[in-house]
Amino acid sequence: MKRRDLFAASLAAGIAGATRRRGWAATPEASAALGRTALHGTIPHLVPIRAHADQIMDIKVCLRPFRPAGPRMDVERVAGKTVVHNYGHGGSGWSLSWGAAHIAVGHAAATLERRVAVIGCGIIGLTSALTALRAGLDVTIYTRDLLPHTRSVRANGSWTPDSRIALTQQAGPEFAKTWEQMARYSWQTYRDYLGLPGNPIDFRDNYTLSDTPPDAADHAPTPTDPAKGNFATTGAPQSSAEFAEYASRISDIIPAPELLAGADNPFPVGYARRTPLMIYNFGAYGHLLLEEFHQAGGRIVIREFHSPADLADLPERVVINCPGYAARDWWNDKSLIPIRGQTSWLPPQPDAPYALEYKGAAMISKSDGVMIQGYDMYGLGEMDGVGNSFEHPDRAEAEKAIGIIEDLFTRFQPRNG
Amino acid sequence: MMSFSFPLRATALACVMACLPQTGGAWAQSYSTGHTGGRAGAAQPVSFSAEQVAHGAQIYAGACAMCHGADLDGGHDVPDLSTYFTARWANTPLDRLAGYIAHAMPLMAPGTLPPQDTAALVAFILHHNGATSATNAPLPMEEARLAKFRFPAPITQPPASGGKP
Ligand SMILES: Cc1cc2nc3c(=O)[nH]c(=O)nc-3n(C[C@H](O)[C@H](O)[C@H](O)COP(=O)(O)OP(=O)(O)OC[C@H]3O[C@@H](n4cnc5c(N)ncnc54)[C@H](O)[C@@H]3O)c2cc1C
């Protein structure tokens, strides 16, 4: 996660030549933007989050499907089929899903075939299948697991469209344009799901908290050790600075953060900002998408593929391939690098609908539970979890993340009214 | 609850104007047959000149790119003029496409494009979508002559080893 960076970048929008994300406070325009303080009286009464390790209901672990060159979205001819790839969306799969689906289904539609197979039913496969149905195609999903059992629902579930999506060098400038197209298209599609019963897609005020001036935090030098080299020299990313940042390209449509002035800041920390954050309520949203898919006449076949040659016996001649991280095995794509991440789930707290980030831990109060994730508790930045494929819960890590939020609220003095 | 927004847009409009009633007329049928206006007969191989493509690119950049995108990708609220577009218009007589552009585009000033600009835009769009010109003869401007050409169906077979790994 790098939401801090994300909104730092959004503040940097419009500053010519501001390529480094941490440079915003140095420029007058950005300081002016940051100067906007939340209107007095707009910070609601906040109910404390009951963050205690003995409240854990579930710990979920996931591997982000990261490709240094960005997601694979090309078309190839294999086993007599036209295969449109749509996998490898790193830590941004939920956020970019509709835009990626729009591009992939465009390639499929351009073949003029009426029937398409979609492989995989994670968030990428399901949105691709729905997009194909909407384009008038007959769609069958072939998958090992349905959405609730996929890696997708082991995510954090918020708008993080350029989280570990690519390495700047390896993806190149063309991908930045594709990314922007995907991000804009997705954002607009998500608006269509706002305000529905069950709130499949929702917004939370996200409070970014710090004991030190946020400027200092944002200016903290990215840990780079020249002796370690980089992806080009070692075949693996070595520092946060290698990861691509594209958020400033869409800052015109993404709500910007505001500062909380001292008297309005309800948190026991020196510095706080508030940013409206789009979130995905996995339960409500997942059911809605599957329902839509079935209602529109989509079919699902439970099936596992073992090698590309297995495609030969499918009745469809066009295949949209959305296996996520599993492409490493099933499509033998060794460019996929696992980036481990873990979330803990505590009982839902509908009385406390907000989100926050503090000391490398994130909390989002969602309809299906309070999600707590340690996304950067060891000062590694974007390198946190890179190359780690230990897809098994780490209780100690979960308790450490919950402890950060717990400590914050032991010092929290709820205001009256 | 959500309901599907089917791709009506220009497809439906052109369909109303041009289509014979379709048998089995489910909405999805219009997907690949909407513009063909019946059976795809033998059409002449399409020709356009390099000058037309260059001229079309120039007009496109000034009058169309702001909505349809520099790469013809469209957006959430504007149809693309690339992948989905080829699927919608494949095998359609080109006078329909030229006619649509001439009557309806650019959206804020429809009917303002002179015929040579319209033909140039069609040539540019064809070229951008991978159509090759049989000769360097320019695409005609007159509807009756344009009607002899059809929007080429896309090449269904990508190269055996696809783009980047
Ligand atoms: C901790 C964590 C937090 C994250 N937070 C966010 C976030 O806040 N926002 C965001 O946008 N993204 C986030 N992500 C990233 C996001 O979760 C992924 O990018 C996304 O889930 C990828 O989805 P997918 O559909 O490609 O893959 P998957 O969810 O893995 O789906 C793959 C599908 O393919 C099927 N499949 C695989 N192999 C085969 C086979 N051989 N045969 C048949 N079927 C097969 C599977 O059964 C499954 O249905 C996060 C990731 C992690 C790990």
TrEMBL record, chain A:
Name of a matching Pfam family: DAO
EC number assigned by the record: 1.4.3.3
InterPro entries, per the entry: D-amino_acid_oxidase_CS (IPR006181), DAO (IPR023209), FAD-dep_OxRdtase (IPR006076)
Chain ranges of the FAD dependent oxidoreductase domain: 115-409
Cofactor (UniProt): FAD
Spans annotated as Disordered: 205-235
Key words of the record: FAD, Flavoprotein, Oxidoreductase
Positions with biased composition (Low complexity): 211-227
Catalytic activity: a D-alpha-amino acid + O2 + H2O = a 2-oxocarboxylate + H2O2 + NH4(+)
Family of this protein: Belongs to the DAMOX/DASOX family.
This protein's name: D-amino-acid oxidase
Automatic annotation (TrEMBL), chain B:
Protein name: Cytochrome c
Keywords: Heme, Iron, Metal-binding, Signal
Pfam families: Cytochrome_CBB3 (PF13442)
PROSITE patterns linked to this entry: CYTC (PS51007)
InterPro entries cross-referenced by the UniProt entry: Cyt_c-like_dom (IPR009056), Cyt_c-like_dom_sf (IPR036909)
Cytochrome c domain span: 51-129
Organism: Acetobacter lambici
Signal peptide bounds: 1-28
